[in-house]
Every structure is written in C-alpha cells, then in structure tokens.
Amino acid sequence: MKKRQEHSVDGFFRNSAEKAKDLQHRHTINFNIGRYNAVVPQGKKQFSDVERVREKAKNLKWQAIEKLDRYLLQFEENLVKRGGRVIWAETAEDAQEVILEICREKKCRSVVKSKSMATEEIHLNDVLQQAGIESVETDLGEYIQQLDGEAPYHIVTPAMHKSKEDVARLFTEKLGTAPDLTPEQLTLVARNNLRKKYTQAEVGVTGANFLIADTGSIAITENEGNARLSCAWPKTHIVVVGIEKVIPSIQDLEIFWPLLATYGTGQKMTVYNSLISGPRQPGETDGPQEMIVILLDNGRTELLQPRTRESLYCIRCGACLNACPVYKNIGGHAYGTTYSGPIGSVITPQLKDMEEWKHLSYASSLCGNCTEVCAVKINLHELLLHNRYEAVASGYSSLSERLAWKAWRMASLNRRLMNAGNGAIKSWVVNHLFKGWTHHRAGLEFSKKTFNERWKEKRGSN
Predict the structure, then answer these.
(1) What is the pTM (predicted TM-score) of this model?
(2) Total domain count for the chain?
(3) How many CB atoms within 10 Å of residue 395?
(4) Do 295 and 419 have their domain in common?
C-alpha cells in the first residue's frame, strides 16, 4: 500500500517548506535534471527545424481534440475488428470496477503492470491489493517506488529524487541484498525478481502513449522492454488510457515518437517502440488471448471547455517539470496529486475540485519557462492564470484577500493614492497589515520616492 500523499492546503505548504530546506534533496534533483538538460540539446539536433516540428505536433493534437468523439469511435471500431474490446470508463471508480471484474473472471492472483500514470490516477495498485491480488510494477523506477511505498515522484522518471545510495539501502532493507551493490548489480537484482512475475501473472496492465485512430492500435514507447513483457506473457492484456491520448493517424508517430523521446529523456528515439493492434491473431504464436482497452474520462471532458482545452494536448514528456523552478525546489510529492509540476497544477484543479486544489495554480512563479519548453507548445502559464481567475470568480478566495486586492486596485488607478505616504509606510502596510503576503514570500520594499518625485527631480516641474 502506498503512503498517501497529503493534499490539503496546509499539507502542501508544510511539505513544500520541508523539501525546500532539504539541501540533499535539492542536490539530487539538480544533479538529475542537470543530466537531462545536458542531453536534450543533443536530441533536438535530429530535427532540422525543431520549432516547426513542435508547431506541427500542436496542430495535430488540436485536430485530435477538436474531433475527439469521432477519432475515439474510429479507434474503437478498428480495434474491435481485430478482436479487441473497448470499455468506456467515466470515472476512476468505473475503471476500478471493470478491472476488478475482469480479474475475478480470470481468477487472477497476480498482475504485472508497466509504467502508467493513468493507473496511478485511479490508484489501481491499492485497489488490487485490497482485493487480495498482487500487483507488481515492472518499470525499474516504479518498482523502486513500490518497494518504498511511495507514489511516483515525476511523470517520466518516478524515482528521480533517489540517489544510487538510496536505492542500494532500499534494496538491502526490502530484498536483503548486499549494501554495496552498484547500479548495474541492483538492476540485475530487479530484473531477476521481475522475470518470475511475468510468467506467473494472469493479467498484464499497461498504459498507452498514443491511441491511433486509423488503425485501432495503441503505441507504447519505453526504454526497458517491460511493457512488451507485461502485455505479451499474460493471457489477458488490459490497457488503461486517457481519452485525450488519441491521434488521427499512424503516420503521425513519425513526429510524436521522436518528439516525446527528445523532450522526455533527450534521446532521438527510445529503445522500445511498440504498436499493439489487438490480441493474438490466428496463426500467431505469441501475444495475449484477450486485449481490453479502458478509455478513461475521469474529468477530462470538463477540460474540453474552450479556455482549458489546450491542456489536453499534453503528451506527458515531463519537460515542464524539469524546467519549473518551483518543482525543482519543492519536489514532486509536495503537490499531493498524481500529476505534479506545471501541467499538474493546470489540470488537477479542473479534473478534481477547484476549491480544494486551487492552491496548486499559485505554486508558480509565472516565469513562462514551462511554456517555453513544452513539446507541443501549450501555453501553460496562461492556463495557470486562468485557473487563478476561475478560482476567484467562483468565490473561492478569502474576504481578506478580496479586500486587499480591491484596495490595491483602487490605489493603482489613482495617482494621488499611489503617491500618498512614503515608501517606508507602504512597506509596513503590506508587510505587517497584510500578513498573508509575507507568509510565503519575501517582504515588499517600496521605493523611498514615488515616480512623480523622481520625475520632477530629473526633469523639473515641467
């Protein structure tokens, strides 16, 4: 059972403050993100015009989301033709119920699972464990996190916050290995343990990076091959995937696969790229006997409103997390939600509850670096601002906050009010009267002289 992440506002500030002061955590994250920053420019060299590729990818996602109903139905029709099943899950509970029903029908005792943020979103491992079914993460990073009872720290690299020494200690504690194993030896230990699980499992669960409408296929990109094993060995293959992952054509992968690899890990292409178009066909010697794709909504249709629709273009490359100064200081777990960083701060209040999660939209410096690095050019900083506007317009701000901003607005629109009082008085009013401002920020220090005073000194009374 995973340690539940605390998602209250107080919990967010408490965890953020704790991580921001943890110098070892900061060193580990900066080291790992530094390695990412070093290789991404090399990956970009495969594109003659990377900005044009990003723009084209955004246009393809725009096309897919604008005609989402049509492409999803086309995907379903083509997959069913090859013997697959498609189940539509409106909520996380619907998806959980369907998966449990399938597992009970198959008399399933164990499940192997490849890396999937959608299954994290519906807390699948916890649900299966409560039903007495063993669920084993087969991605190395996810396996490490599962051993430690933690949720993924990052969309792409789940154990980014752990050093090799941390992993060695964890394996010693949980698996009884020698404490001085190298990363290569630790990987071999994990591989040997997981290989047995593939042959024992009755059901394999994967996510999907893309749903391909014109062929009815799912596309999976990975570096370890565990997703292939998770869907090839067990007799039943279950895919849990968000409805926004659909793309119009298989030909679009020539853009999306290298783009995702470059912005996700700095590679030109990931090691394993798989297209799966249904269960084992007549005459084929391997593959699952049954393939079931669960199309997960879980609030995504709420994001189809014009102001937030763009957030559904996300291909989960994780680039915005690596670029965000807030994420690099407070870490992935402080957010208390499945999707962290800028994209998580955009979609979580919309997918869940704006009043409960609005604080995430304020966990941003609005520097715009997330927008700058987004593989599909989503205007993330503008979406964060929209969330803030929506929270205030919905009445989810406190009375003191509303009064403070009203006073600020009145003063900003009136030159006499702006010039009233010297800088020391203004600084005291903001820093002491409006204490909420300095609770999580440095104090404001106003100029000793107003703009008008400085203008007169420099230019004279004219």
Answers:
(1) 0.91
(2) 2
(3) 8
(4) no
Asked if 204 and 230 count as a contact pair (C-beta separation under 8 A), the reply is yes
pLDDT digits over 324-344, tens only? Answer: 999 999 999 999 999 999 999
Instruction: Write the DSSP symbol of residue 178.
Output: -
- Whether residue 135 lies inside any domain: the answer is yes
Q: Do residues 272 and 128 share a domain?
A: yes
Helix, strand, coil share (%) of the chain residues, nearest 5: 55, 10, 35
- 360 in a structural domain: no
CATH number at residue 240: 3.40.50.10420
Neighbour-count burial for 161-193, b at 16+ CB within 10 Å, e otherwise: bbeeeebbebbeeeeebeeebeeeebeeebeee
Domain assignment of residue 444, given as a range? 399-459
98-122 pLDDT, tens digit each: 999 999 999 999 999 999 999 999 9
Residues in the chain: 462
Q: Count of CB atoms within 10 A of residue 336's CB?
A: 23
Contact 246, 153 (CB under 8 A): no
Q: Which of 301, 323, 346 represents a domain boundary (last residue)?
A: 301
Contacts of 284 (CB under 8 A, 6+ apart): none
